Amino acid sequence: DDGKQIAECRVRFLSFLGIGQDVKHCAFIMHTAQDQFIAHVFHCEPSTGALCKTIEAACKLRYQKCLDAHPGVSRGRGAGTPRSISATLRSVFGSITGRKARSAES
């Protein structure tokens, strides 16, 4: 309420962000340079939604800057778009189940 800064954290060290069952509570966990984890918990009126959306936007911006700084790293499979998580999981589990089926046949 008084406009004072409560915490200053770098987005790159954000380990977790979540909203509680009561939407007036949210928390995030930061990984420090001393290899410790610090939890910050907030109570906001009427909701923590705006705070979490702001933190989410900062994370997306950081991620986009990383992609821009290292072009081609996340696109190691060629010029196409990266695979979705579900496609990757299907591929992984498909290859595992395929291996099991082949080993059972021999």
Automatic annotation (TrEMBL):
MF-aspect GO terms: amyloid-beta binding
Entry's transmembrane regions: none
Keywords on record: Repeat
One biological process term in Gene Ontology: regulation of DNA-templated transcription
Record-linked InterPro entries: APBB1/2/3, PH-like_dom_sf, PTB/PI_dom
Gene Ontology, cellular component aspect: cytoplasm; nucleus
Protein name: PID domain-containing protein
Source organism: Cherax quadricarinatus (Australian red claw crayfish)
Pfam families xref list: PID
Record domain PID: where: 6-71
